[in-house]
Amino acid sequence: MISIKNLQKVFKSGTNQVQAVDDVNLNIEKGEIYGVIGYSGAGKSTFIRLLNRLEDPTSGEIVIDGEDIANLRAGQLRKARQEIGMVFQHFNLLWSRTVRENIAFPLEIAGTPKQERQERVDELIKLVGLTGREDAYPSQLSGGQKQRVGIARALANRPKVLLCDEATSALDPETTDQILDLLVNINEQLDLTIILITHEMHVIRKISHRVAVMEEGKVVEEGDVLDVFLHPKEKVTKRFVEQIMGDQEQDDTMETMLAEYQTGQVVRLHFVGEKTNQALISEVSREFPSVSFNILQGKITQTKKGAYGTLFVHIDGTDEDIKKAIQYISETSVEVEVNHNVS
Ligand SMILES: Nc1ncnc2c1ncn2[C@@H]1O[C@H](COP(=O)(O)OP(=O)(O)OP(=O)(O)O)[C@@H](O)[C@H]1O
């Protein structure tokens, strides 16, 4: 659906040159939530602004649904832009207009007749959960509500793709989660392709199907979120994954746990996407009633493709039963690492 080839953006000022986007090549499928992550200055904002030509590319191709956005002239560009919605970090609302009027704005620009405009606005208000706040002004809204207006406005002209530029970075964690849930709903209900840029791994983990990692203008790593989580190759990617997993921390506490348990075994279960932790532990407890399972600690993170992470479990019972329980777990997709055997 979106094909980006050899995309370059060089900013020039006097003798200074900054290569903000450096030979980016990506393919994004219809209906996908595609995340681009990178630290400040990596080129994410420039990249996303190239996609709707808020910036002009220095060279390269951006084909969205068969149309090369990079080479459109002014008139064609105006039309194409209506098919690309954008949500901004700081909402960019019109302060003298109500919620309803803000959402209607892109429809007015597109020349949508009044009756149709009103119907569409009503639909959007419902979709983003702003019923009852239609006549409020932006200054009377919370951050999350402002972003809901931003999202409704971006969807007004039924775009083919929604671009989100750090859409949750100005929000607190709880509101962030609500807005991310809304984006997932919209993606699923409308089968809408969403491209988002962020510096927060949490955003990628929670809603993205695939991710690209940017550094110094380049995409240094790309793939399914779960694959990238499990096998980060680049240093920068490892840093992002550590942000939410904290592996080093777990290795340190392992030693403490081993010292604590004198009977049974402490095992580390590695979840790689196929089974959820709760389902497995209750299933194995049911199968082996004579064995006790005690979850000691763990860090499991849910991605769009399943659970990923590790769980430390103390298993106690007779040697024979413990062995059978471990064998049972090993036969699922969960990898078992036996750390301790004292009996
Ligand atoms: N209009 C501009 N003129 C000159 N240089 C620019 C311009 N916009 C961005 N840059 C430079 O391009 C590089 C990439 O910036 P960009 O804002 O795209 O990165 P980013 O990953 O989005 O970071 P941030 O989250 O801090 O905005 C930086 O070195 C930045 O200084």
From TrEMBL:
<feature type="domain" description="ABC transporter">
    <location>
        <begin position="2"/>
        <end position="241"/>
    </location>
</feature>
<dbReference type="InterPro" id="IPR017871">
    <property type="entry name" value="ABC_transporter-like_CS"/>
</dbReference>
<protein>
    <submittedName>
        <fullName>Methionine ABC transporter ATP-binding protein</fullName>
    </submittedName>
</protein>
<dbReference type="InterPro" id="IPR027417">
    <property type="entry name" value="P-loop_NTPase"/>
</dbReference>
<dbReference type="InterPro" id="IPR018449">
    <property type="entry name" value="NIL_domain"/>
</dbReference>
<dbReference type="InterPro" id="IPR050086">
    <property type="entry name" value="MetN_ABC_transporter-like"/>
</dbReference>
<keyword id="KW-0813">Transport</keyword>
<dbReference type="Pfam" id="PF00005">
    <property type="entry name" value="ABC_tran"/>
</dbReference>
<dbReference type="InterPro" id="IPR045865">
    <property type="entry name" value="ACT-like_dom_sf"/>
</dbReference>
<keyword id="KW-1003">Cell membrane</keyword>
<keyword id="KW-0472">Membrane</keyword>
<keyword id="KW-1278">Translocase</keyword>
<keyword id="KW-0029">Amino-acid transport</keyword>
<keyword id="KW-0547">Nucleotide-binding</keyword>
<dbReference type="InterPro" id="IPR003593">
    <property type="entry name" value="AAA+_ATPase"/>
</dbReference>
<dbReference type="Pfam" id="PF09383">
    <property type="entry name" value="NIL"/>
</dbReference>
<dbReference type="GO" id="GO:0005524">
    <property type="term" value="F:ATP binding"/>
</dbReference>
<dbReference type="InterPro" id="IPR041701">
    <property type="entry name" value="MetN_ABC"/>
</dbReference>
<dbReference type="InterPro" id="IPR003439">
    <property type="entry name" value="ABC_transporter-like_ATP-bd"/>
</dbReference>
<keyword id="KW-0067">ATP-binding</keyword>
